[in-house]
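Reading is simple: each integer encodes one residue's backbone shape. An example follows:

___
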Amino acid sequence: MDEVERIEQAMIAIRRRQTRRTLGAGEPSGQAFDVLDVVEDATAPTVSTVAAALAVDQPRASKLVASAVTAGLLRRVADQSDGRRSLLELTGQGRELLDRAHQRRQGAFDRAMAGWPATDRNEFARLLSAFVDALD
């Protein structure tokens, strides 16, 4: 198996592990949770931002955002530069949920690399970041 096939297999394994993640009772998962990641990462997040980031159509993105708003994880706020547009903002509850998720994910990564020397961890982080950037 060449390196490209090995990378593909590793990426498939990562995706499968992510889709099986458990976020706890009553907490969103899958695309519902991905909406929060998008809002956290974007500069001025809108429903269109969510649609583009998740590669879904506008009606699907609207439903995902509405669900997060109803669950108290997001709120819509008026865009001060364009009153016709609403921006999305994490609520305190949404922020707490994401903070817990970051801790879980970082803990899993830390455990997976527990026996690695610091130089290998740094090199892996550098190469993985470069790989992800190149995908865009």
Remarks:
- Confidence is low (pLDDT under 50) at residues 22-26.
- The chain has one domain: 27-135.
- DSSP finds six helices and two strands in the chain.
